[in-house]
Structure formats: structure tokens, C-alpha cells
Design a protein that fits this description.
This protein has 187 residues and is α+β, with helices and mostly antiparallel strands. Helix content is 36%, strand content 30%. The longest helix is centred in the first third of the chain and has 16 residues.
């Protein structure tokens, strides 16, 4: 199957409904994450490392933060023909700083490059801003660094993420500051 013409590709991304994720979508969300990560990791790593990511997504602990985000309205899904094809969410930073951590930004590979990821990210950022978070941080695999840089994020650090089974994979940390609210104190 060939890619749709560019004008049709743009229309798909722009018209894709974005909804608040619900707990009944949790297994589908994990599927989207596993497929997205597997395809992406295989572009720069071996099958063993890609499988480590898939195993990580299907580990029981993976769901807890997603369930919290769903319960607080901080996890979103993109739909094409009623099917979840992408997700993105956020949470306040664990250290109680005034930063939002962008999380779970994944689009199924066959729906990539349609603008769905950009719309999801914009929706999540707007939701965080509505709760007075104006700085966003993200931990990204190598394949998605360009996506976040295009969205205005800058690289702050590089590191490794331990996934289990003695597998560690590279990650890049990025950050984006938006305008501060008028009531924000000046430092």
C-alpha cells in the first residue's frame, strides 16, 4: 500500500479526533506503545533490545502511571475510524517542581508522519498549561528526538535507561519553556 498524497496526509492528521483516554482503552494503549517502540528501536538497535522495550511495556508496573494519568484526565488518545492510533499524556514531575513531564507520546508506525503526534503533543501541552505548568520535560528514545526538537524542545542531557534483562538503551532528555503566566513571580 502506498502513502496517500501529501494533501490527504495533512487532512488525516488535522481531522483526527483527540479524546481523553479511559481505563477501558488501557490494553490498546499498551499495544500502541509496544508497536511504536518496537518499530522505532529496530531502526537503531537489535531485535533483543527492541524486545526488551516490548517486555517493559507489558510489565505490570508500566500501567500504574498511565492509570493515574487517565484518572486525572492527563492521558489522551488519537482515533482514526474509532481505533486508537496514538497516545500522549503528562504528569507533574515527581520532585514537585513546577514542570510537566510529557509521557507516552506514541503513534502506530503506519500512522506516523500524518501530524497525529504533533496534535497529541499540542493537546497535552495545552492541558498542562491549563493547570499552570509552563515548562515541559521529556525523556525520548533516539528516533523521536527530532520530533521534539521540531516542536521547540531542546536537548538537556543524554543517558541510559535500564529496562531489565540486563538491557540498557540510550535516552535523550529534552525541555521546553513556554511563556510564564503574568502572575508568575520573577526570579
Amino acid at each position: 500500500m502506498s502513502d496517500p498524497p501529501p494533501h490527504n496526509r495533512m487532512r488525516v492528521g488535522a481531522s483526527t479526533p483527540i479524546i481523553h483516554a479511559t481505563v477501558d482503552l488501557l490494553s490498546t494503549i499498551r499495544y500502541v506503545h509496544a508497536q511504536s517502540l518496537r518499530a522505532a528501536v529496530l531502526t537503531w538497535a537489535e531485535e533483543k533490545q527492541a524486545q526488551a522495550y516490548v517486555d517493559f511495556v507489558y510489565a505490570p508496573a508500566y500501567c500504574a502511571p498511565i492509570e493515574r494519568a487517565i484518572a486525572t484526565g492527563r492521558c489522551f488518545a488519537a482515533l482514526v475510524d474509532g481505533r486508537v492510533v496514538g497516545t500522549c499524556g503528562w504528569s507533574p514531575m515527581e520532585d514537585h517542581s513546577p514542570q510537566a513531564r510529557i509521557r507516552w507520546c506514541h503513534v502506530l508506525p503506519m500512522f506516523g508522519r500524518l501530524g497525529i503526534g504533533r496534535r497529541l503533543l499540542a493537546t497535552v501541552e495545552a492541558a498542562a498549561v491549563s493547570e499552570d505548568y509552563f515548562t515541559f520535560v521529556v525523556r525520548s528514545t533516539p528516533h523521536a528526538v527530532g520530533f521534539f526538537e521540531t516542536a521547540g524542545y531542546g536537548v538537556t542531557a543524554q543517558g541510559m535507561r535500564v529496562l531489565g534483562n540486563n538491557e540498557s538503551l540510550p535516552v535523550t532528555y529534552l525541555r521546553r519553556n513556554t511563556r510564564a503566566p503574568l502572575s508568575a513571580p520573577l526570579f
